[in-house]
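Memo to structure team: turn this sequence into structure tokens by end of day. - J.P.
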Amino acid sequence: MSNQFTKLVIEGHALRIVMHGAASVRLISLMAVIAIISGLIISDDDGLNSSVERQDDLQSAFTAEETDSGHSESEMDMEQPKEENSEDSNSELPNGLIMSGAGTLGSILLGSVLLEFVRVTVLMALFTPLLASIRSNREDLLTRGRIMGYLEANAGIHFSALRDALGLANGVTAYHLQVLESRGEVYSWRDGKLRRYAPSGIPEAEMGRIKNPIIGTRLAILEVLADSGMLGVSGSEIRKKTMISRQLLSHHISELRKSDIVEPASERKRPNWKLSSKGKETLEASRKLSISESLA
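Reply from structure team:
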């Protein structure tokens, strides 16, 4: 019971982080847009005021020439730099607002291009409110049913692979995942640059394997060990098949052994290595996830 309660607390905390992130993106984007618009308005007002002032100056200059011939050219030259300095100072504020607003929006855009979890947050912040008002209930139910069905068959898949597999747009995928997560039907977590999703009803032990899939070199090592049986495979044979150095193999074997995924096949100083029962389950889950993402 306590494990279930802890799970709900953790999932609720993760969901609050995502929701707060989306709210922060909305606020920052709104402030950036306001800064750009304010800069443009101030710039236009300054331009209009400066043109009016120039016309007034010209009229006053003509009037001064007709009525007061005592002013020298040097005094006129002294007044002109002051006017130019005031115009430069007036232009700094709108330019600063425009540059800061554009820089903020550019940073958000760059982050969404490079990092998937940032892209998901941005999509939830900017597109889901719009989609919420235009999507029909029937289409929503059908799309969410497709998403849930695919997640149940491919738990742990990341956002982009899910989107591509179902042929959905970025905003549509983010919107429905947000709705499902807010209802407690879907659980998500950050995995490096990615954000992964799974149905929330998965048992805790299975979720542990899904949240920590074996990929890359370690998956290749497990594939080599998969058919070795009780005899196992020697380190030199693993290095030959995976084409990695002795030091790198030693590091990966050490980490896999700490997780009880591999175990020695004998008590020798340099034993062969084989998969543990947990390793076989982990390999199966990692294979399934790797295949589903490669086909997306």
